[in-house]
Amino acid sequence: MNWGKERRLRRIFRNDSRTVIVPMDHGVSIGPAKGLTNMQDIVDKLAKGSADAIIIHKGIAKTVDAKDLGLIIHLSGSTKLSHKPNLKVQICSIEEAIKLGADAVSIHVNVGCEEESQMLMDMGMIVDECDHYGLPLLAMMYPRGPNIKNEHEPALINHVARLGAELGADVIKTNYTGSIDTFREITSCCPVPVVIAGGPKAKTDKEVLQMVFDSIKAGGSGLSVGRNVFQHENPTSMSKALSAIVHDKASVEDAMSILEGK
């Protein structure tokens, strides 16, 4: 047993082995998006909202107080301005993440893009370093590339989730497949916890809450949802509503009541 990883994972996952993570690494890929203009302000709101952890880049980690939130430093980067935006390169070292007090690190791998092999090679080396230092690794595994027609296709999600686990990730973040039955196949085939991504800003709050509820019912271990939380008109209440579903077994209706302040 890797005691360092076990201890650090307990700062991200509660005793129920579930977690509410809010990724806020978007400043690198798309710039200071709505909700991320004042990073300390949004971190404070998430801490009040019972979130468990945040994902941020190393520069932001030097400027904000993460409060009691688990700190996950994102190691990958690319920008929408690049002619190869799907190529994620390593922009932070494991040693630097440890110096910043990281409880875990995360990487982004786009499976199916032309540079897939480079990202997989980088992941292999990062896994070895994480094992050496006892630092958990969350792998954002997405089917994304010229031959990918549907990034939520169950067979593709099953492949990328298992790929991340096969290469040694401790936690997998990937897309929700759209139904409880198909997502249950993913969680049953993946030997490490699977958390769902939030994707683009949803049309309704209930849509987000229902997706999270269904993923938990299918054996998911929580969520790593960004824009649908930090761009919400009330990020604190949205965090509380999501946490109620993930940790307190709340129904979607109960979570909506929390969100609406009833």
Keywords:
single chain, 262 residues, alpha/beta, TIM Barrel, eight-stranded parallel barrel, two-stranded antiparallel ribbon, 10 strands, globular
Any overview of this molecule?
By secondary structure, this protein is α/β, with parallel strands linked by helices. The chain has a single domain (3-195), classed as Alpha-Beta Barrel (TIM Barrel). Helix content is 42%, strand content 17%. The protein has helices at 3-9, 26-29, 39-48, 58-61, 94-99, 116-133, 154-166, 180-189, 205-217, 227-230, 235-248, 252-259, and strands spanning 19-23, 53-56, 70-74, 76-77, 89-90, 104-111, 137-143, 171-174, 194-197, 222-224. Helix 7 (154-166) links the parallel strand 7 and strand 8. It starts with a helix and ends with a helix. The mean pLDDT is 97.
Supply the number of structural domains.
1
Q: Could you give a short account of the major beta sheet? A: 8 strands, parallel, barrel
Give the CATH superfamily. Aldolase class I
- How many DSSP helices? 12
How many β-strand runs? 10
In the CATH scheme, the class would be: Alpha Beta
N-to-C CA distance? 45 Å
Strand/helix succession: HEHHEHEEEHEHEHEHEHEHHH
From the 3D structure, determine the CATH topology.
TIM Barrel
Q: Low-confidence segments, ≥5 residues, pLDDT <50?
A: none
Overall spatial form: globular
Helix content: 40-55%
Largest sheet: spatial strand order: 1-2-3-6-7-8-9-10
